[in-house]
Design a protein that fits this description.
The complex is a heterodimer of chains A (207) and B (161). With 207 residues, chain A is of the alpha+beta class. Chain A has five helices and nine strands, in the order αβββββααβαβαββ. The radius of gyration of chain A is 28 Å and the shape is elongated. The chains are: A alpha+beta (207), B alpha+beta (161).
Chain lengths: 207, 161
């Protein structure tokens, strides 16, 4: 009986001594950061810092590692593309395609769509189905000619026109988020009273 | 008197309800696979496609899990298995020039592609890990945080039993 109980007890003792040792030597968290090219093969810039220093990544597949806030991050190295793809396979497979945005323009004081805009809506629907989109954001805008109240309702009418056509073409109204900004959030900032055709628009984002 | 109190109570209740419902959306879940969860106010719930995400949410995956999300500024992020990431700050109000996103990667693998916040605010996007702070000026990158201490902690109770 005594012999029988000894083994688990021994294990416990070993673990109790081993645990602090593991904490001292085995708990170091490390971070690896890798700069990837985007879909257009463009490459951005990342500044990786700790309390002691910093490294800048600005080339495709360039990486740095850091084991502590008290040390400068490691010298940047270029990694093998395939090695990175393998290490991040799960996250890369799960990476959503970035949302796609469209802009539709309107004539002064009008919420009527042009023939070109109607053709663009067909493209919106194609993208919607191709990427199995879960929602669409529609935002209406005007230029800075006219009163604030009038422009708000004009921007709403513009957004509604676009939403109604999409619904007529089979999109569920529930998944459309509609906002209207009047002359707010202009594409091209301009002074009040200045006509600006590029601001008379509806933006559509398919996500 | 009592009816007045009840009405006031109900009105207050509605306002609190509204305030909660209006908590600004940070993004939504675009895809999930395997064990994937959202932790909010210390409650962990399984993640589903189209789930709304808000500031302070933690994204969690198990051994075979992964998850892809789209944030309100059109940036996209995905996490692989055994990952823990906190959306510690998300502000996207371009008209008020409020543009900032901070994520804390506790462990696991993350891939991120910047959106409008990084475009409009050069210092807007930040990823923090236990051993670094990354200032992201753009555009596409991957982070891996290995955390052996986490493994020891999960292993220990099993040995002790």
């Amino acid at each position: 009986m005594m012999r029988h109980n000894l083994f688990p007890r021994l294990c416990k003792i070993i673990v109790l001594f081993a645990f602090p040792t593991l904490l001292l030597f085995g708990c170091a968290s490390t971070t690896q950061i890798i700069l990837l090219p985007d879909a257009d093969s463009k490459v951005g810039v990342i500044e990786v810092s700790t309390d002691k220093g910093a490294q800048t990544l600005n080339q495709a597949w360039q990486a740095t590692e850091s084991a502590s806030m008290d040390k400068t991050p490691g010298e940047p190295k270029i990694l093998e593309k395939e090695e990175v793809r393998r290490a991040f396979r799960e996250a890369l497979v799960a990476e959503p395609a970035p949302p796609v945005s469209f802009i539709m323009y309107f004539k002064t004081d009008s919420s009527v769509l042009s023939t070109e805009s109607l053709a663009l809506l067909t493209k919106v629907l194609d993208v919607f189905h191709a990427r199995k989109a879960t929602d669409i954001i529609i935002s209406g805008h005007t230029d800075a000619v006219g009163s604030v109240d009038y422009n708000r309702s004009l921007s709403l009418r513009r957004a509604k026109t676009v939403a109604d056509i999409l619904v007529a073409r089979g999109i569920d109204r529930q998944i459309i988020q509609m906002t209207y900004h009047g002359k707010g959030n202009p594409l091209i900032p301009s002074s009040d009273g200045v006509p600006e055709p590029r601001n008379r628009r509806v933006e559509i984002t398919v996500r | 008197m009592r009816t007045i109190l009840i009405i006031i109570g109900l009105t207050l209740f509605c306002y609190i309800g509204m305030a909660k419902a209006e908590e600004p959306r940070a993004g939504f879940v675009k895809n999930v696979s395997g064990q994937a969860f959202i932790e909010r106010n210390n409650v962990t719930m399984p993640a589903n496609v189209n789930d709304r995400l808000i500031e302070k949410d933690t994204l969690l995956t198990g051994r075979n899990g992964s998850m892809g999300i789209i944030l309100q500024d059109n940036s996209v992020m995905s996490i692989g298995s055994d990952t823990r990431l906190v959306i510690s700050k998300f502000l996207f109000e371009p008209s008020d020039a409020k543009l900032s996103f901070t994520a804390q990667v506790k462990k696991g693998t993350v891939v991120y592609l910047t959106g409008l916040i990084a475009k409009l605010n050069r210092r807007g996007v930040r990823f923090e890990t236990p051993t670094t702070v990354c200032g992201v000026r753009g555009t596409h990158f991957a982070i891996k945080v290995t955390d052996p201490s986490g493994d020891v902690k999960t292993l220990l109770p099993k040995i002790m039993q």
